[in-house]
């Protein structure tokens, strides 16, 4: 079919009719920066199968955007066909879709949905986490401090209180260490400068998602030392209570 002028559903378009990739793309997590491609020769959007064929052993993250059983089944078949169950992580923020993925192929790595992250925090702060089984293999969350770039602030203290609260509740090194001991990987996204790399390094996460892989590689090769001082949970609780009182 011919590509319509405006199409609200990509499923209505044949693969060969998809528009080419743009030559200039704004970076969502680096405000004001636009990426300009130097190679204008091949701007076709690759299929997932082509990506698997080109990068057979590179870890790939797949976010299943639609609650579509055929889509889930097809992606699962591709993962199995190319023996990528150990090199692929899939999931969605929606818990319903995430459960479907596990039911379809429990061998594939799966990241926490938003609801499951909330449950994880409840279990962590209630002290029940060590006694509850976890099916997910990856915790992939944002680093709250990245939003200061959008808010045009220069320090954590001047961020909105809600962002501070999320930071205190979610970004806990002891939580990450507990998950890692259970074989669960912790990823932070999307970090694009040395300050953010350093914050992730201090937390001891397994991986960083970035728009600048070369910049991250240079940082990792620099051998920057990090502070591994354990955090004080009582301090965390007291700071959280103060933030809640200010918000109410």
Automatic annotation (TrEMBL):
<feature type="domain" description="GP-PDE">
    <location>
        <begin position="1"/>
        <end position="220"/>
    </location>
</feature>
<keyword id="KW-0378">Hydrolase</keyword>
<dbReference type="GO" id="GO:0008081">
    <property type="term" value="F:phosphoric diester hydrolase activity"/>
</dbReference>
<comment type="similarity">
    <text>Belongs to the glycerophosphoryl diester phosphodiesterase family.</text>
</comment>
<dbReference type="GO" id="GO:0005789">
    <property type="term" value="C:endoplasmic reticulum membrane"/>
</dbReference>
<keyword id="KW-0812">Transmembrane</keyword>
<protein>
    <submittedName>
        <fullName>Lysophospholipase D GDPD1-like</fullName>
    </submittedName>
</protein>
<dbReference type="InterPro" id="IPR017946">
    <property type="entry name" value="PLC-like_Pdiesterase_TIM-brl"/>
</dbReference>
<dbReference type="InterPro" id="IPR052271">
    <property type="entry name" value="GDPD-Related"/>
</dbReference>
<dbReference type="GO" id="GO:0004622">
    <property type="term" value="F:phosphatidylcholine lysophospholipase activity"/>
</dbReference>
<keyword id="KW-1133">Transmembrane helix</keyword>
<keyword id="KW-0472">Membrane</keyword>
<dbReference type="Pfam" id="PF03009">
    <property type="entry name" value="GDPD"/>
</dbReference>
<dbReference type="GO" id="GO:0046475">
    <property type="term" value="P:glycerophospholipid catabolic process"/>
</dbReference>
<dbReference type="InterPro" id="IPR030395">
    <property type="entry name" value="GP_PDE_dom"/>
</dbReference>
<keyword id="KW-0443">Lipid metabolism</keyword>
């Amino acid at each position: 079919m011919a590509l319509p002028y405006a199409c609200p559903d990509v499923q209505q378009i044949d693969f060969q009719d998809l528009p080419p990739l743009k030559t200039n793309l704004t970076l969502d997590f680096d405000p004001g920066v636009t990426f300009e491609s130097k190679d204008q020769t091949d701007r076709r959007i690759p299929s997932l199968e082509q990506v698997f064929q080109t990068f057979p052993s590179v870890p790939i993250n797949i976010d299943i955007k639609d609650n579509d059983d055929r889509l889930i089944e097809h992606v699962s078949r591709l993962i199995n066909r190319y023996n990528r169950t150990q090199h692929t992580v899939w999931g969605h923020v929606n818990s319903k879709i995430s459960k479907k993925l596990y039911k379809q192929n429990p061998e594939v790595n799966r990241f926490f949905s938003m609801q499951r992250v909330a449950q994880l925090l409840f279990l962590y702060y209630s002290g029940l986490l060590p006694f509850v089984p976890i099916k997910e293999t990856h915790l992939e969350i944002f680093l709250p401090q990245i939003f200061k770039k959008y808010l045009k602030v220069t320090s954590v203290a001047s961020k909105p209180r809600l962002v501070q609260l999320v930071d205190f509740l979610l970004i806990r090194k002891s939580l990450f260490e507990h998950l890692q001991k259970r074989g669960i990987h912790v990823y932070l996204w999307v970090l694009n400068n040395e300050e953010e790399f350093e914050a992730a390094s201090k937390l001891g996460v397994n991986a960083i998602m970035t728009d600048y892989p070369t910049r991250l590689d240079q940082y990792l090769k620099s051998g920057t030392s990090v502070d591994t001082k354990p955090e004080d949970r009582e301090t965390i609780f007291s700071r959280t209570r103060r933030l809640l009182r200010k918000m109410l």
